[in-house]
């Protein structure tokens, strides 16, 4: 399992948070995700999905920009 902390730009309301949370929760391999207006912390099975999948899901959830990220194995 890996955990990524992703800084997100362009989120302005609870609806944005809900959209990103839903997109991450539906991603195969995601174990947990915690999303706020500025960032998401995602724990995922890196044998099923990768960091690039997580970042793509965030971008696809709306007009959001990944402004930074860090990732660590567990």
Overall tally of domains? 1
Q: How does the helix and strand content classify structurally?
A: alpha+beta
The CATH architecture: 2-Layer Sandwich
The strand line-up of the biggest sheet is 2-3-1-4
Q: Could you report the average pLDDT, rounded to the nearest whole number?
A: 94
Helix content: 25-40%
Return Rg in Å.
11 Å
CATH topology: Alpha-Beta Plaits
Number of helices: 2
Low-confidence stretches: none
- Count the strands? 4
Order of helices and strands: EHEEHE
Form type: globular
Describe the overall structure:
- The protein is of the alpha+beta class and 74 residues long.
- The protein has a single domain (2-73), classed as 2-Layer Sandwich (Alpha-Beta Plaits), CATH 3.30.70.100.
- Helices cover 31% and strands 39% of the residues.
- A 4-stranded antiparallel β-sheet has the order 2-3-1-4, with helices on one face.
- A hairpin with a 3-residue loop joins strand 2 and strand 3.
- It is globular, with a radius of gyration of 11 Å.
- The mean pLDDT is 94.
Characteristic key phrases:
Alpha-Beta Plaits, 4-stranded antiparallel sheet, 74 residues, single chain, alpha+beta
Give the arrangement of secondary structure elements.
Elements: E1 2-9, H1 14-26, E2 30-35, E3 39-44, H2 51-60, E4 65-73
Antiparallel strand pairs: 1-3, 1-4, 2-3
What's a quick, concise take on this entry?
By secondary structure, the chain is α+β, with helices and mostly antiparallel strands.
């Amino acid at each position: 399992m890996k955990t990524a902390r992703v800084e997100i730009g362009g989120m302005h309301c609870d609806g944005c948070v809900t959209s990103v949370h839903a997109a991450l929760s539906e991603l195969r391999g995601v174990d947990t995700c915690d999303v706020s207006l500025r960032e998401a912390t995602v724990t995922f099975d890196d044998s099923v999905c990768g960091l690039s999948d997580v970042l793509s899901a965030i971008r696809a959830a709306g007009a959001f920009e990944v402004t930074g990220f860090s990732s660590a194995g567990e």
